Amino acid sequence: MVLAHFVPPGATIIAEQPEIHLHPRVQTELANLMVEVSRQRNVQFIVETHSEHLFRRMQFLVADRKISPVDCRMCFIGMRRRKARVQLLQMDDYGRISNWPKHFFGDAIGETERQMRRMIERLQQAEQSELRQDG
After folding, report:
1. How far is CA 94 from CA 19, 35, 101, 133, in A?
2. In whole angstroms, what is the distance from residue 67 CA to residue 73 CA?
3. Which residues lie closer than 8 Å to 49 by C-beta, 6 or more apart?
């Protein structure tokens, strides 16, 4: 993204998966860089990404009032009847998306919830086993 500092003010940069080969923490910093450059140099970014980290950071920046939902338009491109379909994601002032496409980023929250449930079950079983052995 060095290019962002050298294009003329008001330019548009189109980037395909700029997160490739970047550590997740650096992917979030990439979002910060794009917002900063956009503000300072009036540069517009059109980014195609698969990065949940980049996407989530943009949501956070909206929630943190660093940018508005209008400053950060996000779209989902999916297939319908063998044709590409672009869907503008509706983001509110808190960074929440009201029209998430099904399985957009998998089920990270569900996976975390299932892992926690299983951990609690195993800890309870281990505690009961210890009580039986002591009793």
Report:
1. 24, 17, 19, 51
2. 11
3. 17, 18, 19, 55
pTM attached to this predicted model = 0.75
CA 20, CA 80: separation in Å to the nearest integer? 27
Q: What is the pLDDT along the chain (135 residues), one digit of tens a residue?
A: 788 889 999 999 999 999 999 999 999 999 999 999 999 999 999 999 989 899 999 999 999 999 999 999 999 888 888 899 899 999 999 999 998 887 777 777 778 888 999 999 999 999 998 888 876
Specify which residues 46 forms β-bridges with: 14
> Is 68 exposed, middle or buried, given 0-12, 13-18 or 19+ CB atoms closer than 10 A?
exposed
Residues facing residue 13 across a β-bridge: 45
